[in-house]
């Protein structure tokens, strides 16, 4: 079995639920040694999240594959001492507590870097570790709301809409992964670690790209426009004879090819549609013309026709169709099999990053609570059986 790209990198992971665990999941899939520290008796909050199989949360199982779990009471002096000893051995530590929590425990970055100057300290929170809102609690829906995403998602006559997935948490997790890997590379060159501070709201603001620029340049506040894209047209969803599809004819060449395929050859010469800027301005008129043609054609035949001309198009899949698609599910391995000791055989979501020489791997299923506590303490800190039993008696684990 090939080694992962992050083989030999040790991560002490204090994160719970989604944003932080998504980051450590990516690092784990790439071969990092993830020591997931959980609260004794309770564990990661997501262990209680829907759906459950045999009492085990598949939400947790999906996000925590390739990790090992140990329980540790960070409020107890003995627990703090063990944590500090783990930090001496770590390359990266991850946490997603509200800013100030780790400092109150005496385990914030300024203290930990005294123990390990090369430590990369990655933290993700709702609003970041500085600024007027730093003390506010942050969840995905807050990030989507205050980052501007909800105001631009949905239909013009509808209400602000949350994305179907927890996209600010996912963006925060990906941003944290990028940040800690950049800091780790810097540490390898200089020997000096640093703090990586990621905010869910910042991550959403960054992801809005052109939406922000429209306001900053034109003064117009972008609103909800359905599935249309502000920057180009036709780049939208359309109704065909038997359902809906999307078409992404994002430049003049693709628009001309689309018109050729649909036998609408007069449109590229129409002054309303001659350039992309004109098509954006007259998008409603163009959409009516296109859907007049589409009402006589099925989704499948339209997609096949447009793809044959090199025009980006695709059906709007439901999740069962995504899972059954031979390219996504099979060739790209976006759904993989795992076997959990309690939940049994399961299909979980794969990893989107494909590395040619150090491919991501799924070496172990998600751990049960505290499954690897003794193993990790003996392996990492050399704790003896007697020491372990003494600490266990004090409910440190």
What does this structure look like?
Helix 1 packs across helix 7 (167-190) and helix 6 (140-146) packs across helix 8. The chain starts with 9 loop residues before the first strand and ends with a helix. With 397 residues, the chain is α/β, with parallel strands linked by helices. The protein has helices spanning 19-29, 58-63, 77-89, 101-104, 109-115, 140-146, 167-190, 200-207, 210-218, 252-261, 276-281, 283-294, 299-308, 319-324, 326-331, 373-381, 385-393; strands at 10-13, 33-38, 52-53, 56-57, 67-71, 92-95, 120-125, 194-199, 235-239, 244-248, 313-315, 335-340, 344-349. The mean pLDDT is 96.
Short description:
This protein is α/β, with parallel strands linked by helices and 397 residues long. Helix content is 40%, strand content 15%.
Q: Which regions have little confidence, pLDDT < 50, spanning 5+ residues?
A: none
Structural class: alpha/beta
- Global Rg: 25 Å
Strand content: 15-25%
Tally of helical segments: 17
What separation lies between the terminal Cα atoms? 33 Å
| Percent range of helical residues | 25-40%
Write out the strand line-up for the largest beta sheet, numbering strands in chain order.
Answer: 5-2-1-6-7-8
* Helix/strand order, N-terminal first: EHEEEHEHEHHEHHEHHEEHHHHEHHEEHH
Count the beta strands: 13
Give me the oligomer status: single chain
Shape: elongated
Mean pLDDT: 96
Please summarize the sheet with the most strands. 6 strands, parallel
